[in-house]
Amino acid sequence: MDLISFTPLIILLIYLLIIGFIAYFLINVLLFMRRKSHSDDLLKQKIEELTRKLGEQKDK
């Protein structure tokens, strides 16, 4: 078999690799955004607690 018969197979493999990389990248981005959202919620909660405590200390 010569190189010409392997060309469609090589193109298919490259196409599948690109699609796989895109899927992997999108899944990682979604997981990162989920973790970041949770982290931001915790940070916002802590800031609200600190603001409340500072307000209570000013009132005293």
- State the major sheet: none
Tell me, briefly, the overall form: rod-shaped
Q: Work out the helix count.
A: 1
- Helix percentage: over 70%
Rg over alpha carbons: 26 Å
Query: Beta-strand percentage?
Result: under 5%
Q: What is the CA–CA distance across the termini?
A: 88 Å
The residue ranges in which pLDDT falls below 50 over 5 or more consecutive positions are none
Which H/E pattern describes the elements?
Answer: H
Q: What integer is the average pLDDT?
A: 92
Structure in words:
Helix content is 95%, strand content 0%. The chain is mainly alpha-helical and 60 residues long. The longest helix is centred in the middle third of the chain and has 57 residues, at 3-59. The chain starts with a helix and ends with a helix. It comes from Tigheibacillus halophilus. Keywords: Membrane, Transmembrane, Transmembrane helix.
Give a topology summary.
Blueprint: H1 3-59
Report a brief summary of the structure.
By secondary structure, the chain is an all-alpha fold. The chain has one helix spanning 3-59. This is DUF4083 domain-containing protein.
Task: List the defining traits of the structure above.
60 residues; mainly alpha; 0% strand; membrane; DUF4083 domain-containing protein; transmembrane helix
